[in-house]
Write a structure and sequence with these properties.
- The chain has 10 helices and 20 strands.
- The protein is α/β, with parallel strands linked by helices.
- Strand 19 and strand 20 form a beta hairpin.
Amino acid sequence: MASCHSEERSPFCHSEERSDEESAAAELGLSHAVVTSVNRDDLSDGGAAHFAATIREIRRRVPGCTVEVLIPDFCGDAAALETVLAESPEILNHNTETVRRLYHRVRPEARYEQSLELLARADAYTGGNAGAMRTKSGLMVGLGESVGEVIETLSDLRSVGCDIVTIGQYLQPYEKRRVGAAGAVVVSRAKSPGTGRRETEDGRHAVLKVRLPSAVYRLSAFVLLSTVATAPPVRAQTRGAEIVRQQKATMPDTLLKGNAQGNVILIARIDKKGAVQDAHALWATHPDFVQPTLAAVQTWSFRPALADGQPIEIAANIVFPFRIKDEKGKLAGRELLGPAISDLALFPADASGRRTAPEGFPLRKGADPRVRAEATLDLPAVDKARTLPYKVEAISPARKRTTVYEATVSVARKQVSVPLRFSIPVGADWEDGVWLLRLSVDSADSGGGQFWLARDPAHFDFAAALRRLSP
């Protein structure tokens, strides 16, 4: 990464590179993946959309894998930062790198205050929720800073809600240890300000108390490396289903000739052997998209989901976007006629809305008080910014509809997809069975999905309940 010269940068981000990252994460069986990049200040969003798409794809390919992103400052662009935050990475990392006094030498194109502002915005985005995303930053030492300046920087990081700090050291480049275009930072050993101890005005020593998160998130660089690079510990494993074979659906000739584009949503179950069963269409922009989608899904296979080391059946929400592209990979067909879900994952969640189990796991009535939804909404491009209202309804096994969530989503000029993140409460009187969620955007039906609920999921026949929903 550090060997990339700025003049070699591509004018866009490669989706194939993102696919390689997800494939590597899946092949290695990672339980925690760290995603970073070179600075892409040449892009309008600094590469934020690429980060967001990578998070989504890693979660799709490696269910249960936590994701940490190490991001640039996006030149202070709050909208770019929010694009990444909307994907709810478990850890959002932005390195402060050095103390305030040395910024002009170590990071001449950045500002100390801007890095702190980014971390403060990320912390504010979580709303102070202890179960939500953690923020993280890193410092290099040995560049001529004093211990007092390091403590001041740690205090600044604490003041903006930073949860995790790593402190490391870089070796100065020289001819036999050259790293691309990296320039040497001349380290001064002259007496630097501060004695290494902070004192109050009356001469007493000040003590910096660092707030530590729960043990799961107490990550040093060494702990992080061992988590990523070593085999999983020997214990009863809980993980989501993992795709092994996936065939794409074929565009129907009738719609191909008309340059039609659209989405299909299937609901199904993935059984204890990893096979897709009882698949049927919940929603489609055109009925002709349904049959090729069903045919493709019947060939799919998964590594089955595990709960405490034992295979279990899970609910599957399968979204197929049909798109026509030209030889350069650009969309060439007619635009969608209205809003449509193009990605959807539903999870059991705690009272704060944080996931408590992998995608598709049944909710335990009385133990999982909320359902968390992570979706992507495709939209026709419009030549102006807009704010769209949307509503979520829950449909019980007895077909009773209840509005459970209402909000608005901001859409930029010509933006064609937006993330939606929300959680809904599970009613104390909700019955056991297969529940549906339906999303309407600006009063237009835009798709939905299913989740399973039971007081004792291990002994409830969700397969029979799902078959009762089949047309």
